[in-house]
Amino acid sequence: MTQACPECRSVIPKEARVCPACAQRITGILCPDCLAFSPEGAKVCRHCQHRFKTDLQQPNTIRPFKVQADQLATLVLNWSLWPQKVSFTADKITVTSYGLLGLTSHDEEIPWEKIAGFSHRSGIFWDSISIETRGQSASVVSCLKKADAQRIRRVLQTLER
Q1: Which of 49, 59, 75, 84 is 20 to 30 A away from residue 34, measured at CA?
Q2: How far is Cα 71 from Cα 98, in angstroms, rounded to an integer?
């Protein structure tokens, strides 16, 4: 039994998952954003990085916690007396940054489903984490203590699995 590849129209075996002629996946999970197929069990679309629904993204799986940047590092590196604060809840991450004199603050809310990835930069004394999102600019949390950065990193790594 044979079928035609929907991409290149080559004749391929009926049970094929990937076209041998054009290497296009023809079965699997259909991405709602780019309409490309990904392998069964995939967490993220290979083409557009759309995050497929997983059990991890259910509200009850993330334990709420808060992290504050190191005050000395914030003073030395950012010239501010008010360190960033990061709040992890069941539905989002909130990064609170303060102005120079602490008179103003800016809350950046990042829903879990918008997170596309992250990068962790380790320094000698303090670390920083950049949280990349789809459709928004990356949020950078700097001046983190090593233990706090590792905790944030572990939470963000669970999203990639």
Answers
A1: 59
A2: 12
